Amino acid sequence: MNASRTNTSRRGVSRPSTTGRNRTARRVAVVGGVAASAVVLFAGPALAHVGVQPVGEAAKGGYATVNFKVPNERDDASTVKLEVNFPAEHPLASVSPQAVPGWKIVVTKSKLDKPIEMHGKQITEAVSKVTWTATGDASVAPGYFQQFPLSIGQLPEDADQLVFKTLQTYDDKDVVRWIDAPTGGAEPESPAPVLALTAATADGHGAAAGAKDDDAKDGAAHHASDEGESGGTGSAASSGGSDGTARGLGIAGIVIGAAGVAFGVLAGRRRTSSTSTPATPATPAA
């Protein structure tokens, strides 16, 4: 009778299923792969194109220091030239570049169809383009980026943003045209740098209200040198808002992936526990 009871009990015990463990392992691998893909998807594209960011704010009607950030998206060529075209519909009479070691800077001005007034004076020409050309070995090598600072003004009071169509030239003569203006929907394939303008200050003239043109430019240039130093190849200046967005999205992808992995592991454990519960021993015969 004892032997019969023992054999019956052994037959009633279900060993852990290897199928359940295999399913859990596959689920963990799939979720982990999706999480990694999400990080690459969200973090990669934000770093690829030329962008522009203000140092502080760019208030309507005022002056601002801005940085054009140029990443090298090629792994077999270096960036040797940058051409930034200024919007003709919102002419800027005051544009002052900050020196970038190893780069020649040319500021091009054009006659205005309609003169504008600035600090009580009639302005008949405005900057239409700024060009940076590398000299010697001061190019933007693969895996690096470079910032090109400008002090600009007077910013328009009747616009929410300025679009700067830009050309990026590589040492193999390839030219990338960042000229597509935003349309309010999905980001275009080759987006132009866009400078968002903030509301004017209480006096209605922006950050540099009441200052003379030269004073505003000098102050903005000094602010730029304090906030971010622009060097040669491999500058370590701040990466700007696009990097922050990329990092945020990347972290979100990691968190979502980790949650999926945890869910898969717990589900597998619950399944294994349920299949491993011993069966009720058979009632011995009288």
Low-pLDDT residue spans:
1-14, 28-47, 204-243, 274-286
The percent range for helix content is 25-40%
Inertia-based shape: globular
- Strand element count: 11
* Number of H- or I-type helical stretches: 4
Order of helices and strands: HHEEEEEEEEEEEHH
Calculate the mean pLDDT score and round it. 72
Largest sheet: 5 strands, antiparallel
* Percent strand: 25-35%
Strand order of the largest sheet: 5-6-3-9-10
End-to-end distance, in Å? 10 Å
Structural class: alpha+beta
Q: What's the gyration radius in Å?
A: 31 Å
Describe this entry's structure for a reader.
- By secondary structure, the chain is an alpha+beta fold.
- The protein is built from 4 helices and 11 strands; from the N terminus they run ααβββββββββββαα.
- The chain has helices spanning about 1-10, 20-45, 215-225, 240-275; strands at about 50-55, 65-70, 80-85, 95, 105-120, 120-135, 145-155, 160-165, 165-170, 175-180, 195.
- The strands form 3 sheets. It has a 5-stranded antiparallel beta sheet with strand order 5-6-3-9-10, with no helix packed on it.
- The longest helix has about 35 residues, at about 240-275.
- Residues about 1-15, about 30-45, about 205-245 and about 275-285 have low confidence and may be disordered.
